[in-house]
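Encode chain A's predicted structure.
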Amino acid sequence: MGTVVLNFAKPARSDSAASFSQRGFVDMSLFVARRLAGVAIIAFTIGACSPKSSVAAAADAPPAPQVAAPATDSSQATPAQPVGTLNGRTLPDFATLVEQVGPAVVNISVVEKAKRVQRRGSAEDSADDPVQEFFRRFGMPQPRGDYQEPQRQGEGSGFIVSADGYILTNAHVVADADEVTVRMTDRREYAAKVVGIDKRSDVAVLKIEGKNLPVVKIGNPEKLRPGEWVLAIGSPFTFENTVTAGIVSATGRSMPGEDGLVPFIQTDVAVNPGNSGGPLFNLNGEVVGINSQIYSRSGGWMGLSFAIPIDVATNVRDQLVATGKVTRGRIGVQIQPVDSQFADAFGLDRPRGALVGQVLEDSPAQKGGVKDGDVILSVNGKPVDRSTQLPSVISQIKPGDTAKLEVWRDGASRTLNVKVEAFQEEVQKVANRAIESEPAKADRLGLSVRPLDSNERKSSETQGYLLVEDVTGAAAAAGVRPGDVILGVNGRAVKSLSELKNATSDESKKVMAILLERDGTQLFLPIRVS
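Encoded structure for chain A:
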């Protein structure tokens, strides 16, 4: 048989049947070969894209991580995903928050009042006087008599609380101001009038002449929780509209040296000179506080900043706008914290409330039946978990209204109605006692005490009968001092040595709460008995 040459470019033609059949076979073979080759290529391609070809092998293999393919067409790109989440919650969008609330935050520039200063008499006295130093350095004759110090300028922050121009800030920002200028984020400037200042709460109200001004939303600081995000806007070191963020560390803080009228919000938001008076926002864009203080050893922020709760500031604002002054409530008690030792001594389930160390004479508390040694647990249904909360709660009650106090006394809770009166400064008397005669010793507590005679009690104006002359052991460790006057033990008044011994003889009591009078004031001290 002759050999057939295949020319895929141009097939040979033949008129015989054999030639036709042979060509048809060849053409069909070529067609089948092409189809098989295509199937093989597809199979190879699929196999190259799969880690294993068999179903069983695929079932054994670990799932491959899903990686989103980059979008090649912006018109078909999926919406951008959140930058990050924590416990399934989207992290805060501070940029949008600042856009919404920023226009209502203002910068406050202050020019303080000029002061007349009397020139010191000697060169030694005036060594630190900068004006005198100027004249000495340039060999000029020093001025005689009084001279006027140059006016000083200051910076602070604030925020608009009404569309007609009322602004809240700190009292210490504008306390000595002669001129106050308010600058908004859009660079508009207004001369501001100081409506009122309350130094006790460190809140001041300003007024500018404007209409339809942007205002902040007022939030509820009682809903703040430790760990919650907060944001501050202010003008630290004259850098206007500076934004800082952090978290709430605690609420209801009492600052050293303060009178407890403000339950501060503690945060770690960066606050520096110039931030004073600026708002503290929650993530809903609501003002929950006014940035007021920092706790620092360097004069700058060290991670501790404190804000005045906005409900306290709003109460002050309303009174200043209405009457120009602030009136606070009082009930006339001196209080102490309740620690675990006091809780044990008074039979409380845990340390809570405010321990009444002294009820002032002729005060609302005395008239309402409050006694020394009572533990105030709540006011008008609002729990008093810490003693620092009580002054703020009482101060915000309108004088003349009745406060319903829940107190703990003799191991049980009871309710007292106390009519609140206007707050006023208390004058404390310092006792002046003579220490004579032979002391008697209460061995169990380590106290050496003696009775006071009638003349001593009258001259020292004390309500007690037993004077501490010496102290050792458990009493000394608890802080009892010679010169203290013992008034009671565990809520029971003691007027004699026998009553003191009877009150302290119960050996089942591991802690004795001793009520003392010291320098005209009363306080409880817990004595842990060994």
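Residues 1-32, 39-83, 121-125, 425-442 have pLDDT under 50 and may be disordered.
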